[in-house]
UniProtKB/TrEMBL annotation:
<protein>
    <submittedName>
        <fullName>VOC family protein</fullName>
    </submittedName>
</protein>
<feature type="domain" description="Glyoxalase/fosfomycin resistance/dioxygenase">
    <location>
        <begin position="96"/>
        <end position="208"/>
    </location>
</feature>
<dbReference type="Pfam" id="PF00903">
    <property type="entry name" value="Glyoxalase"/>
</dbReference>
<keyword id="KW-0046">Antibiotic resistance</keyword>
<dbReference type="InterPro" id="IPR000335">
    <property type="entry name" value="Bleomycin-R"/>
</dbReference>
<dbReference type="InterPro" id="IPR029068">
    <property type="entry name" value="Glyas_Bleomycin-R_OHBP_Dase"/>
</dbReference>
<dbReference type="GO" id="GO:0046677">
    <property type="term" value="P:response to antibiotic"/>
</dbReference>
<dbReference type="InterPro" id="IPR004360">
    <property type="entry name" value="Glyas_Fos-R_dOase_dom"/>
</dbReference>
Length: 210
């Protein structure tokens, strides 16, 4: 359990991150505060988020129902275990894909694959994040080839990202109707998963599996 002063500083940090529209904090808010669970990142960052909200988030992560309960709990807990650091909780993983043009790639992922735009960064934009459901992909523009020209000749099925979902077949049919370029059609893998693979504008291979 962290000491109270560190928890106060953490709450202020979350509030500052929200104020500065630091997108990763939206995932934390959505995970730990149920009233935000139905909102996407942009909606969360557009909402009012007070210090009391940030304190509530910190309390939830520490296992308490409120900031007041957290303070009372820290007062009552005087065993050696209270000085131990809390175990980190993994929130999610966000693959980064290298692309030649942010605008064209965003158009592909939004127009073809049904993602939404979380944000773009830079003027002109050189970084972006797209999401669909809980899946997030970070797009980073590069000016030079990011793979050796012969790479695909030897590693033709090398994946850039894998996205899991509840019904790969339904998404496969959706993408077939949208004429999405496929690297591999729908199939059952030896381990039982149902998969297919999409190729984006830059040759990144995205596997979808259920």
């Amino acid at each position: 359990m962290s000491n109270f002063e560190n928890l106060r500083k953490r709450a202020k940090l979350y509030k500052r991150w929200h104020q500065n529209r630091y997108h990763p904090v939206a995932a934390e808010i959505r995970r730990w505060l149920p009233r935000y669970s139905g909102l996407n990142d942009r909606q969360i960052l557009d909402c009012a988020f007070k210090l009391a909200d940030a304190q509530e988030l910190v309390a939830a992560k520490e296992g308490f129902e409120s900031w007041t309960a957290l303070k009372q709990g820290l007062t009552l807990m005087n065993t050696p275990q209270q000085s131990k650091a809390s175990t980190p909780t993994f929130i999610d993983a966000q693959p980064q894909l290298f692309v030649r043009d942010i605008g064209s790639s965003c158009d592909f992922y939004i127009g073809k694959l049904g993602f939404e735009l979380a944000f773009t960064y830079g003027e002109p934009a050189f970084y972006a994040q797209v999401f669909r459901g809980a899946a997030r992909l970070n797009l980073r523009s590069v000016d030079m080839p990011f793979l050796h020209p012969d790479f695909r000749l030897h590693e033709e099925d090398a994946l850039s990202a894998t996205i899991t979902l509840d019904d790969a077949k339904a998404l496969f049919l959706e993408y077939t109707r949208a004429e999405v370029p496929l690297h591999q059609g729908l199939r059952i893998e030896p381990w039982g998963a149902q998969t297919f693979i999409v190729r984006d504008l830059d040759g990144n291979l995205i596997a979808f599996a259920s």
